[in-house]
Amino acid sequence: MQPKYLRPYRERLIWISVFLSTLCVFSLIVMVATHSLYPAYSFEYIIRQKTIVWFYFLIFATLISFGINLYFGWLGRHIVESGICYTGQITKVYWHRAFLSGSEWKCRLAINCNNGKEYITPYYRYDLLNYLYDTRCELYILGKHCYVTGFQTMDRIMTKEEKKAGIYGGSAPHNTIPKFPFLNLVEFEACYRKNHSYRSTSQCVLLGVICLLLTLRIAAFSMQVYEPSRGDSDHDGAPDYIEFELGTDPLVADAVFQITDTDESTRSNVTLNVAAPYYKEMLSDAFINYSMLMLNEETMVGYVDRAFTFRLPQGCTEATILVEFDERLLENETFYPKLYKFSYDYQEQGLVELPSHWDGSSNHITWDCTEESKASTEIWRYYLLDKTSVDEWKNSYWANAT
């Protein structure tokens, strides 16, 4: 294979494909490593987001650039394998301003072959001429395409000044074409896009800036693509970010929303899980919290921890109370956790036992509170008590009453 500097400019741009494919991998790594996935609908949700267009564009650009590089690589090999080989002489160098900038140079060579015809080569970087010591070369021809493989070269390293002159050309007042003294016999012609009186930014710098900006944009996309949008994908009135927060599917309209509100006391942790149709005030309607002690509640028989209060939202279809308590309470063999409610407005009812469930060994108790009043003005306070102690107290109370 020819040294890189002897290959046409178009075959030296493989770095673009590598750069884009690296960005694809980087984007995927950032997305997966820094964001929570929502297994039930994550992929479907992500591909609906507007930001995913950037990722589609990146993949498309990567495939296109790889395709172009593969095509030009194949074309060069195909010309050499199938074309006719001629010997020729470089007679002219056409200088062009590089794409994206008016300061960096690239060139095309006019070669006069021994078949009496003249051919124009593909573009080469300016540094090609630094390695030539003769104008003779071999040229493969296939139809309208040509490919040079037999340059007469020498091993030589460009100095910093020569590289700078090769990029920007000559001196003021204008950026003239680069000069290579060992090719003084070759005719040079400059094809200006713009006539600069200054040395503007080179193509490499501009491409570097574009690559940096693209990298930053992909990084920003990677960090945003799994973030729920502020819009409403299913048009059911609940923004996507709220649906994600509540654990419902933002792609299904009129879904039931799960609300989990937690309050923690010294020895117990109470959680309210609610399923209800979404409406604007739903989040503020449902709440749970511990209340302050009232009227010597700390002396209540069988008392375990402070009372708590809660409220269900309108249209509630499912509601469950989960109370987790200190495991040390289980050390008492007679301990039996139970939920009760009490209202100072209905003191004659006393402690009302609730149909809560305990499996006999765990440190949590549950209660299906769906049927509790959802919009009542009655104020009920709820307690986690030791049923064994409460029963003993009741038995003692009625025994003394009689």
Summarize the SSE layout with pairings.
Blueprint: H1 14-34, H2 42-48, H3 52-82, E1 84-97, E2 105-113, E3 118-120, E4 124-125, E5 136-142, E6 145-148, H4 160-168, E7 187-191, H5 203-224, H6 240-246, E8 256-264, E9 268-277, H7 282-285, E10 287-290, E11 308-311, E12 318-325, E13 337-342, E14 352-353, E15 364-368, E16 381-386, H8 387-401
Parallel strand pairs: 1-7
Antiparallel strand pairs: 1-2, 1-5, 2-3, 2-4, 5-6, 8-9, 9-12, 10-11, 12-15, 13-14, 13-16
Helix pairs in contact: 1-3, 1-5
Note the main attributes of this structure.
single chain; 24% strand; rod-shaped; 402 residues; 8 helices; seven-stranded mixed beta sheet; alpha+beta; four-stranded antiparallel beta sheet
Q: How would you explain this protein's 3D organization?
A:
By secondary structure, the chain is α+β, with helices and mostly antiparallel strands. The protein contains eight helices and 16 strands. It has helices at 14-34, 42-48, 52-82, 160-168, 203-224, 240-246, 282-285, 387-401; strands spanning 84-97, 105-113, 118-120, 124-125, 136-142, 145-148, 187-191, 256-264, 268-277, 287-290, 308-311, 318-325, 337-342, 352-353, 364-368, 381-386. Strands 1, 2, 3, 4, 5, 6 and 7 form a seven-stranded mixed β-sheet that branches. A hairpin with a 7-residue loop joins β1 and β2. α1 (14-34) packs antiparallel against α3 and α1 (14-34) runs parallel beside α5 (203-224). The relative contact order is 0.09.
